[in-house]
Structures are given as C-alpha cells and as structure tokens.
Design goal:
Layout lengths: L15 H17 L13 E6 L5 H12 L3 E6 L11 H10 L4 E6 L4 H6 L6 E6 L5 H15 L8 E5 L6 H12 L3 E5 L12 E3 L2 H5 L4 E4 L14 H5 L3 H5 L4 E3 L12 H4 L9 H20 L1
Parallel strand pairs: 1-2, 1-3, 3-4, 5-6, 5-8, 6-7, 8-9
Helix pairs in contact: 1-5, 1-11, 2-11, 5-6, 5-11
The structure holds phosphoric acid mono(formamide)ester.
The site of phosphoric acid mono(formamide)ester has 9 residues, from helix 2.
C-alpha cells in the first residue's frame, strides 16, 4: 500500500489502491474470524477513544478492534471529560498524548475537529465522525461490506442510492468520496430541503424511480438532533417501506442508528425477513475495517 499517512482523517487522502489495500486486509481479518491468531501489533499500546458525541457501533468496534490486535483502550466521553468545564478538544487531546496513549480515535461535533487535533499532536489521529462533514471509517467499512457481497475488488459497474437526510450526513459525504473512488455511481435521494447540491453526484426526489436502477440502497437516519425537519409524508415518499423493499432486488444498507418506521420499516430492517439486508454485516465489517486501520497506522 502506497498510503503512508500518519492520520486517518478523510478518504480524500487515500487513493483507490490505498482503499483496496485496507479493505483486503479487513477481508483477511473477516475470513480468519475466530481462527485469527493475532501477532498483537498493538501489544503494550493504549488507544484513547475520545468521543464527544454518543456512539454505539463506532466506539464499540474500535474497542474490540484494538483488543483483538492486543492493545488496550481508555474511553473519554463528552459529559465526563473536562470539556464540560470549558477545556478545548485540542487541549484534551494534548493531555491524552502527554499520558502516553499511542493514538486517539475522535468523534466530535466540530466539522474540522479531528483535523485540528491532528495538526497539534504527534500521535496518529483517527476520525470517527466529525460534525456533518466526514466519517471515513464508516465509508471504508461500507466499501468492505459491498465488495464482499458483490465478490469484487472494487465497485465498478455498481450504482448506489444514498437516501434520506443527506444534508446532515457525514456518512453520505464520506461515502460519496469512497464509493466514487471505488468506481460506483452514486445517486443522492431525498426531499429538496435535505439534498445539498454541492456533493458532485446525481440527485433525485423520486425514490421509486431510482430504486429501479441501483444495485444497493443505503438508507440514512433523519437527524432530528441536528434540527432536521421532514414532512408528514416523508415515510411514504422516502422511506424504505415493506412494499417498496418487496419490489427492490438490490441490497439494503443503513449505517445506524435507525429510525424504525420512518426511513425504514421494521420488517425491512429485520435481517431475518430481508435476505438482501446487509445492515448487521456492515457492523461486523466495521470491526475488521477498524482493525486494518489501527494495524496500519499504529501497529
Ligand atoms: N454508524 C455510526 O457511526 O453509528 P454510531 O453513531 O453508533 O457509532
């Protein structure tokens, strides 16, 4: 792999080949499963999870990934840190570095938060979701999930719809970069007020029409905590309802957390009843993907 970046901040920093290299390493970890015998590349190293916003998937999978690589983890969460007394994010990171952690996984509400920390510390920084701009490890794990499903090295020839609250979505922004780099066509779908026009890909308000043309559909959560507003007919127009899913042959994804009954129906979200549902595969791929990133940067 040519990529020798010190931090993992955005997929803009990686080439297609760099992405494929990390994805293949993640696939190796997935194939090895319980038979994976770690050579403990993180042995003796402590990784700090600095999470200023809530998380289930990203934080737990980074913790599991670190432990599977033989390392240890400390968690510093927003409400319990001295940021609640006015300490800045960068000062918090500098203090963690001074305590000797080998790297920091950071989630924050500031669009440029991970970059600001990276510019100030001497240890690797991994962006675990910054504001509404970037969530590169999510996009990389989505690439792993899709390439493994389609049995291909990249996603050339595939067409992916990303549907929902695009305007508040760091997942959408990182996936536009990542999926495009892997050769997929991307169409963004949603109501006009949640559909920014600066992401450089096709856009549509007609979900049913787009579903006839795509091989994968990534549903996104309406981010009410970021003041997203949707009309009463949102589910009818943009939800992956049971009837819509019944007429869709492609694969279904969602980065989580899901608003069941709004952007996705219960019956569609439940893995058991939807054979093309990759939602929990994404979560499984997330651990392996984060192992590949940690191993490359810190191992
Ligand atoms: N997909 C994702 O980032 O989920 P969490 O917020 O639970 O980490």
């Amino acid at each position: 792999m040519a990529w020798n970046g010190r931090h993992f901040l955005t997929l803009d920093d990686l080439s297609r080949e760099d992405m494929i290299g990390l994805m293949q390493r993640a696939s190796h970890f997935l194939d090895a499963g319980d038979r994976y015998e770690p050579d403990s590349p993180l042995s003796g190293k402590i990784i700090a999870n600095l999470f200023m916003e809530n998380s289930t998937r990203t934080r737990c999978s980074f913790t599991i990934a670190t432990k599977r690589l033989g390392g240890d983890v400390i968690d510093l969460l927003g409400g319990t840190s001295s940021t609640s007394k006015g300490e800045t994010l960068v000062d918090t990171a500098l203090n963690l570095e001074a305590m000797g952690v080998a790297g920091i996984v950071v989630r924050c509400s500031q669009d440029n938060g991970a970059n600001e920390i990276a510019a100030s510390v001497g240890i690797p920084i991994i962006n675990a979701g910054s504001g509404t701009t970037s969530h590169p490890t999510q996009a990389l794990l989505d690439g792993v999930t899709l390439t493994r499903y389609f049995g291909k090295e990249d996603l050339s020839g595939e067409h992916v719809a990303i549907t929902g609250d695009i305007s508040h979505s760091r997942v959408a922004r990182s996936n536009v970069v990542g999926l495009t780099k892997l050769g997929a066509k991307v169409t963004l779908v949603g109501p006009s007020e949640l559909l920014p026009d600066d992401l450089g890909c096709d856009m549509s308000n007609d979900f049913d029409d787009v579903l006839t043309r795509v091989s994968a559909c990534m549903m996104l959560r309406v981010q009410f905590e970021r003041n997203a507003k949707v009309s009463e007919d949102y589910r009818e127009s943009f939800g992956l309802t049971e009837s819509r899913a019944a007429n869709f042959d492609g694969v279904i994804m969602h980065p989580g957390p899901m608003n069941r009954g709004l952007e996705i129906d219960d019956s569609v979200a439940n893995t058991e009843s939807s054979p093309h549902n990759l939602i929990l595969s994404q979560v499984t791929c997330g651990v392996a993907t984060r192992m590949a990133i940690l191993e490359h940067l810190i191992g």
